[in-house]
Amino acid sequence: SALLASAASANEIGMNAGDGKSKSPVYQPRDASAVRWASALTSKTLGLKEDSVTLAPWRLAICGDFIREQDAHETPFEAAALSGLEAGERVASFF
């Protein structure tokens, strides 16, 4: 068919990891980018006891390394990661 004729073979695209026998294609991303938002660096946090803030009527959670007390986590990366996890759990509890 035209669909099969226009698609690349699994060997050209790649194969799934594992036993090497899978014929399911593994497509490579077309584009990837990352942006560091330098203006977002804060000198102070909100100083809250929680890692995220939830606005339940809107089913909205706000997270980031700026939410909790400054010395609550060892690094800003840890603070951001834990804040995101907590925000995700809070949003999931809405459903």
How many distinct helices?
3
Q: What gap, in angstroms, lies between the N and C termini? A: 43 Å
Strand arrangement in the largest pleated sheet: 1-2
Question: Averaged pLDDT, please?
Answer: 77
Overall body shape: extended
Query: How much of the polypeptide forms β-strand, as a percent range?
Result: 5-15%
The radius of gyration over CA amounts to 22 Å
User: Tell me about the biggest sheet?
Assistant: 2 strands, antiparallel
Summarize the helix and strand pattern as letters.
Answer: HHEEH
How many distinct beta strands? 2
- Measured as a percent range, the helix fraction is 25-40%
| Sheet/helix structural class | alpha+beta
Low-confidence residue ranges: 1-16
